[in-house]
Amino acid sequence: MTDLHYITRPSTLKENAPLLIMSHGYGSDENDLFSFASELPEELFIISLRAPYQMQPYGNAWYAINFDAVQGKWSDDEQAKVSVAKIADFIDYACQTYPINPDNVTLLGFSQGTILSYAVALSYPKKVKNIVALSGYINEDILPDRIDDQDVSHLNFFCSHGSVDQVIPADWARKAPEFLSALNINHIYKEYPVGHGVAPQNFYDFKDWLKKYI
Fold this sequence. Notes:
alpha/beta; 7-stranded mixed beta sheet; 31% helix; single chain
């Protein structure tokens, strides 16, 4: 069972389909990234998740972001870790429930969904193969204390960011290639002249990348 709400687009394959799990950003829902689904390879079994914490008046979050006069903007890392575990458990649930190849799982995130996708892949590397990390960054506070190079050597990352992102500074995202290089993880990092969003060229680039890695 899973307590996460989600929507699916089945694969054209009847068995061993590559799985793509989408995780949206703060204040959004499962329909947001799902708009990409019709343009992505037909063999992908696509699942778009809704984050577990409901916001008012609408939208959902994977963890709280609070604005504090003393601390400024800060994230609830304990809530984030719970959501990381929920997504990791959901991968198992999806592989048991649908005709999916458990060795071909891709995570696609945007913003807060990207922060969690990084954490799921680096915390539970055996469950994941590819990661498309859009407009997010690596939050080391929600990662394991130690990551073994050999455990993560099979992972592939497509990381991208808007060079004028006003929500998550590009400087934060630029640390990801250094972090991944230190672990000898295959990755690509690209920037686009946009704010906190996915430029058309960014979409085409990650789509082409996905075709190679699924």
